[in-house]
Backbone:
């Protein structure tokens, strides 16, 4: 039996800035993961990924990342995705400043 | 050092113009990412976890003050005010924007620098002994040969689509400071029975997921045969190398699969075939290149000021005990500037620090700077009488950490703080270990000890050849750190032994401390180094210190 589908967000890097972005339900790319569309249906996830990957002059390397619901919006599951929401641990650079 | 001729200048400028057009076409949508990626990689541009990253070549680790100042300028203008010196003697900028990259490359070209072949399946930046041209034990300066290889390999039409990347390291000393046995080709200068300089040619070394100690393919190669011989090696591998599986594509696997005897036969045959096509132009070029690397005029002066400062200032004495190496000329020293202040990121320098180092090199160091694969900066020619002034200037710039070769002098890859390939972080582990031993005030008591940390099995942090190696992995969604012991990156290269199960992020520093305490308890005398003790007693006492103590603690 296939394992149950875990919720996902679509994420990528911005083509010009290179920073991390997430796809929102209203088709924007947000720099704040809490604004991302939390996708709970596998077929819908596949479609959203195809739509994201089609935006090849806007983002690079779109993929589906595991996420879970939180009080203020989707939260990352894996530590790599946690780091992507905030930036490096050796300097206060990246998303941990300014968001 | 080498300075560009008209050909070099035109070539680098043309590449900048090409890349500018490629970036424009990527932005306007005429190039897809799949089309653009190989083009940006050819120019050293990666897309990492949080941003683009530009890897700039510092050929064989040699850089002049003007170039160092330009790196500072780039760091301030296009990045976040710092740069990261890597284990391949390059510098990486962690935060460039795509639109700015052509301008950065233009600024690099203004000072005869570039990012060409710092990535991709090409022959990469040739690395060299960071003490080249200055070391007391050197047979000959290896950098003219490194420059010859750079010119030969840059845009070499036969070698632009290799099975995988290809790395060459070269040392002019029998004591290997360039980790030649961990490279696709390692060149170690030796003398023939009748005293002529030549190279011991080593092939098929590497770290990564399948670490291998390189094997000698030619015990003595006359210097005049260098280019045809390495061309023969790359050419044989280019045909045999596995293109079906990127993990099996490196020459170390080719050598392992076919055996060194068969590879040697094929290379020697190919060498005989292509040797006549080298008409001697390469030797004319080499002679021209050698003129660029003439030794600076090292005058004889009194060293009284140095001795007086050592007597008067304990902190200067401590720094000069650890951060100086023997120079070939009496009265001179090779200075290593540690970029390993406890708690700082190994290999990082701010723009202000880069300018200070440039200034010191100009005033006291004959305008020469080197980057070491151990992520420090070297002033190769400083008269001992000038060392008190050099030390004072370094101290004012927070660059006077006295820990070269000690436990705090950790090398670490960027890890998951920056790298898209990483499976765990490296930098915080390095920071915490250095701070722990700084607090314990044990670094001089412990003596020579090399800790090397990689954040994935690709081993940019050379963990396999660390006396203590640490490898960061992802174990079921948690960062986990595996320890190896007894690795050695010198001419007697040894790959470290795994101790057993790994440790969580908050356990790894304690684990390293238990290893070090076990060493201090087991060593025969303070003169017996960690590596010597390990070789004498083996892994068992260290395993006991690592795991049995932990179990007792858990049981209690």
Residues:
């Amino acid at each position: 039996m296939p394992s149950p589908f875990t919720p996902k967000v679509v994420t990528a890097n911005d083509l010009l800035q290179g920073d991390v972005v997430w796809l929102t339900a209203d088709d924007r790319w947000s720099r704040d993961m809490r604004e991302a569309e939390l996708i709970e249906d596998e077929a819908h996830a596949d479609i959203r990924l195809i739509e994201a990957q089609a935006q090849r002059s806007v983002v690079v390397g779109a993929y589906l990342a595991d996420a879970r619901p939180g009080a203020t919006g989707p939260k990352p599951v894996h530590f790599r995705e946690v780091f992507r929401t905030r930036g490096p641990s050796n300097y206060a650079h990246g998303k941990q400043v300014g968001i | 050092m080498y300075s560009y001729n008209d050909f070099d200048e035109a070539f680098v400028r043309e590449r900048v113009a090409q890349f500018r057009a490629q970036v424009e076409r990527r932005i306007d949508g005429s190039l897809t990412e799949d089309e653009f990626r190989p083009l940006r990689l050819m120019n050293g541009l990666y897309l990492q976890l949080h941003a683009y990253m530009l890897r700039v070549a510092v050929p064989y680790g040699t850089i002049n003050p003007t170039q160092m100042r330009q790196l500072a300028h780039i760091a301030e203008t296009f990045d976040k005010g710092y740069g990261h010196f890597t284990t391949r003697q390059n510098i990486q900028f962690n935060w460039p924007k795509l639109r700015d990259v052509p301008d950065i490359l233009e600024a690099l070209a203004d000072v005869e620098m570039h990012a060409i072949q710092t990535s991709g399946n090409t022959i990469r930046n040739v690395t060299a002994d960071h003490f080249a041209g200055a070391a007391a034990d050197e047979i000959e300066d290896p950098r003219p040969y490194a420059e010859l290889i750079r010119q030969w390999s840059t845009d070499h039409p036969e070698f632009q689509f290799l099975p995988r990347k290809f790395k060459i390291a070269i040392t002019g000393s029998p004591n290997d400071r360039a980790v030649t046995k961990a490279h696709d080709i390692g060149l170690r200068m030796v003398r023939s029975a009748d005293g002529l300089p030549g190279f011991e040619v080593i092939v098929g070394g590497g770290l990564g997921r399948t670490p291998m100690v390189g094997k000698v393919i030619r015990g003595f190669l006359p210097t005049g045969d260098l280019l045809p011989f390495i061309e023969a090696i790359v050419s044989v591998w280019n045909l045999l190398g596995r293109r079906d599986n990127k993990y099996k594509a490196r020459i170390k696997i080719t050598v392992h699969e076919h055996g060194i005897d068969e590879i040697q036969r094929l290379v020697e045959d190919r060498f005989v075939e292509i040797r006549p096509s080298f008409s001697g132009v390469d030797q004319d070029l080499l002679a021209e290149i050698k003129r660029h690397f003439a030794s600076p005029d090292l005058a004889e002066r009194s060293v009284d000021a140095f001795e007086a400062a050592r007597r008067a200032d304990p902190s200067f004495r401590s720094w000069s005990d650890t951060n100086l190496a023997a120079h070939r000329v009496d009265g001179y020293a090779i200075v290593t500037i540690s970029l390993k202040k406890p708690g700082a990121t190994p290999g990082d320098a701010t723009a202000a620090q880069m300018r200070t180092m440039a200034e010191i090199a100009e005033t006291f160091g004959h305008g020469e700077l080197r980057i070491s694969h151990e992520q420090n900066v070297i002033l190769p020619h400083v008269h001992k009488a000038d060392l008190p002034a050099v030390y004072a200037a370094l101290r004012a710039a927070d660059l006077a950490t006295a820990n070269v070769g000690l436990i705090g002098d950790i090398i670490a890859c960027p890890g998951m703080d920056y790298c898209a390939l990483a499976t765990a972080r490296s930098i915080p582990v390095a920071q915490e270990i250095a701070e722990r031993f700084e607090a314990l005030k044990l670094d001089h008591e412990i003596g020579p000890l090399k800790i090397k940390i990689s954040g994935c099995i690709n081993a940019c942090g050379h963990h396999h050849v660390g006396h203590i190696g640490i490898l960061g992995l992802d174990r079921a969604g948690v960062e986990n750190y595996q320890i190896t012991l007894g690795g050695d990156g010198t001419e007697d290269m040894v790959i470290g032994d795994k101790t057993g199960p790994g440790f969580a992020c908050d356990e790894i520093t304690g684990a390293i401390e238990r290893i070090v305490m076990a060493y201090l308890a087991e060593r025969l005398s303070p003169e017996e180094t960690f590596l010597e003790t390990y070789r004498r007693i083996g892994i068992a006492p260290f395993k006991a210190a690592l795991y049995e103590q932990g179990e007792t603690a858990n049981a209690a």
Residues 8-92 of chain A form one domain. Residues 3 and 32 of chain A are 29 Å apart (CA to CA). Chain A is about 20% helix and 25% strand. Residues 42-53 of chain A form the longest helix (12 residues).
